[in-house]
Every structure is written in C-alpha cells, then in structure tokens.
Request: fold
Amino acid sequence: MKKLELIIVSLSLLLAIWSCKKDEDKPKPVVDNTRPIISNVTTGKADNTFQVGQTIQLRARLSDDTELGQYKVEIHENFDGHSHGKTSSTTPFEYKKIVNISGKAHDLVQDIKIPENAASGPYHLLIYCLDKQGNEAEFVLIDLNITNSSQPVINITRINGKDASKEVHLHEIGSDTVSLQPEGDITDSDGLAKVKIKVVEAKHSHGKNSEDHVWEWEQENNLSNRLDITALFRNNPIRFRLTKDGKPANENHYDLMFIAKDKLGNYSMQVVEIHAEK
Reply:
C-alpha cells in the first residue's frame, strides 16, 4: 500500500513539473502601454479665425507603435454664458465625428464647413486618438474664433495708459494691490444683451485659462448699443490682490477678459495680458 502511495505521489510531482515547464514554454503576451501620438495639426489658417460659411481644413498625423484604433474630432462653443433657452437667429456651432482606423499611421483629413447661421465667438476644437489596446493619446485642443458680420465689437485700446494690444507691464512699488483702468468701448448695432469682464490667473494649459477668477463684473440689464468702458472704470478702477494660486505673490500674469453677447446670440471676446509686480 505504501509503495502504491509513493508511486501516486511521484506521478503527481512529475505532472506538476511538466505542467510548469509547459507554461514556461508558452510565449508571454506583449503588454502595450504606449500612447498613440497626434502631430502636425493644422486648420488651414494660422490664426485659427474663420468666418461663418468658411471651411476648416483640419489635417493631422496619427501614429502608434503597434496599431491605431479610433479618432474623434469635436468642436463646441467656449462662450462664457448660456442662452437659458432664449431663441435667437444664430446657433452655437457643434461638430462631432468618430472614425475607426487601423495601421501604425493615419493621415487625418477633415473638411468642416461652418454653417452660415453659426453664432460668432470662441470655440474649442479637440482631437482625440485611441490605439487598439485602448491607450489614449494626449489630446490636442485648438482655440478657434468664428466671426460674422453682426457680432459685438470690443475695442479696448489702453490699460492704465498703456497699449492694450501688447502685454501690459505694471509696477506697483511696495503694493500688493493691482489697479486697472481700461479704456475703450463695446458696441453692437443689434443691441448688447450681456457683458462680462473678469481677471483670471494666466495658467495656459492646452489653451485654457484657469477657471478661478480673481475679479469679475457682469451686467445683463440696462444695456443699449454701446457700453463706454472708459467711463465705467474712470472713478472706480478694477482692483484685486496680487496673488499666485490664491496666495500672496510679488508678481504674476493675468488675463483681463472682456466678453460680450448681443441680442442675436453672437459672442465676442478680447483678452489683454497683464504682468503685475510689486
């Protein structure tokens, strides 16, 4: 009996060893953790500004070390505000297209026509890409500006007496309070429906500013065809603390943003770069 038990144990050990050796001989699966790459992105215009009715000629190179799987192109508005269901003669432009692809390289070619009734204003164009294993490329975000003939006209000419078309450098010796006196106006022949002015810390990541504002002003009522920015801030300048990430700072960069909406649903935006230091 003991001899039989010994034989059974020996056979079990031999089977276990053979099984382990067989598993070792099997090729191990290759794990793909490498992201695909999106490169050589162009829209057909260097400044990414398009009039309604024009075509965005989107081109890009998609590549992966093993196998591509899919890409998505999306366009949505980047307006600072919402219509809350109010009807208008213009409509925010939206676009989305998903395409399955294969191979290690693919030339993305999309001709996207902007509708004639698209609302003017800032938009985001995004490109996403996945490989067959589900790895996602670092997405590409492009700031588009869509224009039409009836959008609000924002004309900010000077900040504290300095040219607003360039970065404005402010030196407030010994003070941690920034004061801004913008000059100019905002006009629209169809009537202004909303104006927002805000200051945000300039954290440009994928073309997007920080959502945290350090100062903000907004008006939706009692607006006519023109808002005199010079008169608005002549006696009450924009004032805020010099901070970086919410903490006291000796210097920082800010974006002073002017956003206007007209009664047709069109938006316009002008951004002035501010460099402030004690």
User: Anything to note?
Assistant: The radius of gyration is 29 Å. Confidence is low (pLDDT under 50) at residues 81-87, 205-210. The chain has two domains: 37-147, 153-277.
